[in-house]
Amino acid sequence: MARYIDPVCRQCRRIGEKLFLKGERCLTPRCAIERHRRVPGAGPNPRRRRPSGWAMQLREKQKARFTYGVLERQFRKYFDMARERQGMTGDNLLQILERRLDNVVYRLSFVDSRRQGRQLVNHGHFVVNGSRMDIPSYLVKQGDVIAWKRVNASVPDFIQTLTEGLPKRPVPTWLRMDVSHLTGEVASMPYTAEIDTGIDSRLIVEFYSK
């Protein structure tokens, strides 16, 4: 299976803004974007030409891909799924991306980043409705219950460390989290108004409509 293996900070620099691909590290001075801003002369070039409409659309599409950790072929598949459904294509696309299991465990604050969530899902550390699920791209449905996989009915030490102090971030209202049992439930489909990635889905629709 193809995957991105280069430094993820390169993706943030390419877009020109923080995508929070490394979790808490992105909030510290160690962030690659912050280090770049501190370099003398590294600010925006006033002589640079204004990007064309196509360039802005491409940037927004890449921003969505990088944020959710999706490669081009799969992203196009999601767009085709969104276009076939009723409603606004852009909103449908964001809802599909939010329903990915690696994103859901991130939204539940079980992990520090979507990339970490993708790795832990791949390694089989989560169960959905009681069944082991190791596919990060699995699209959750309303009523699904996501939980950590327990070993001999106990929670491994590394999971206790990861989940200490839950919730670390606000949990969207379309998810319900049970801190005492370390489980989460999909209460409804994602609300577009709660998606805080700053992605302008309208530009993505325009990009694929040409």
Q: Give the end-to-end Cα distance, rounded to a whole number of Å.
A: 29 Å
- CATH secondary-structure class of the domain at 100-189: Alpha Beta
CATH architecture of the domain at 100-189: Roll
Counting helices, strands and paired strands, the structural category is alpha+beta
Order of helices and strands: HHHHHHHEEEHEEH
Largest sheet: 5 strands, antiparallel
Give the integer mean of the pLDDT values. 84
Percent helix: 25-40%
Number of strands: 5
Strand order of the largest sheet: 2-1-3-5-4
Rounded to the nearest angstrom, the radius of gyration is 18 Å
**Poorly predicted runs of 5 or more residues:** none
Structure commentary:
The longest helix is centred in the first third of the chain and has 16 residues, at 53-68. The chain starts with 8 loop residues before the first helix and ends with a helix. It has a domain at 100-189: Roll (Structural Genomics Hypothetical 15.5 Kd Protein In mrcA-pckA Intergenic Region, Chain A), CATH 3.10.290. 40% of the residues lie in helices and 8% in strands. Helix 3 crosses helix 9 and helix 4 crosses helix 5. Strands 2-1-3-5-4 form a five-stranded antiparallel β-sheet, with helices on one face. Strand 1 and strand 2 (131-132) form a beta hairpin. It has helices at residues 9-15, 32-38, 53-68, 72-84, 89-98, 101-107, 114-122, 157-162, 201-208; strands at 126-128, 131-132, 145-148, 175-178, 183-186. The protein contains nine helices and five strands; from the N terminus they run αααααααβββαββα. It is an alpha+beta fold and 210 residues long.
